[in-house]
Write a structure and sequence with these properties.
Layout lengths: L13 E3 L11 E8 L4 E8 L8 E3 L2 E17 L2 E8 L4 E4 L4 E18 L4 E6 L5 E6 H16 L1
Antiparallel strand pairs: 1-2, 2-3, 3-8, 4-8, 4-9, 5-6, 5-7, 5-8, 9-10
């Protein structure tokens, strides 16, 4: 499979704009690039300008590479904000399972490549503003979505 990640308009993007009222705009998009049966997942996410993703916890090993724009990251531990930062194009990060954070696209949004490794199939937990788990995202959820994307592309 071959993709030019900077020329991504032909990818099948899934919008994420629902969820609890956090008091700020949640608007980002995901496109599955590849996934396998051993728990490896490659996904491209893009944030609309000044918009956030859902508050979440990673349940798997995650690496990210900023391709375009700025990504503002706020990290939490035991419900308290412990770090904020802005990742720029070219910035690479590798995080273990358990990382709780919120991400926001900068004034021009952001485009980020994520590589996840979840041998048990558990990817993330979407959290409410108080840290309560609202839903868990698994590889099985994404496999179904990936199959649907591929079916639509070949239809």
């Amino acid at each position: 499979m071959k993709h030019n990640l900077l020329e991504h308009s032909a990818l099948a993007w899934t919008p994420y704009q629902e969820g609890p009222d956090y008091g700020y705009p949640v608007s980002y998009w995901g496109a599955i690039l590849d996934m396998d049966t051993t728990g490896h997942l490659s996904v491209l996410y893009r944030w609309d300008p000044d918009s956030y993703c859902h508050f979440h916890r990673h349940l798997c090993h995650t690496t990210s590479l900023i391709l375009k724009g700025d990504l503002h990251v706020s990290t939490y531990e035991q419900g308290a904000l412990v770090d904020t930062g802005i990742r720029k194009p070219g910035d690479y990060a590798k995080k273990p399972p358990g990382d709780v954070h919120m991400e926001q696209g900068g004034p021009e949004g952001a485009l980020v490549l994520f590589e996840l490794y979840a041998p048990d199939g558990q990817l993330t937990e979407q959290l409410d503003p108080n840290g309560k788990v609202l839903r868990t995202l698994t590889m099985d959820h994404l496999r179904r979505a990936f199959r649907q994307q591929n079916d639509q592309a070949t239809a």
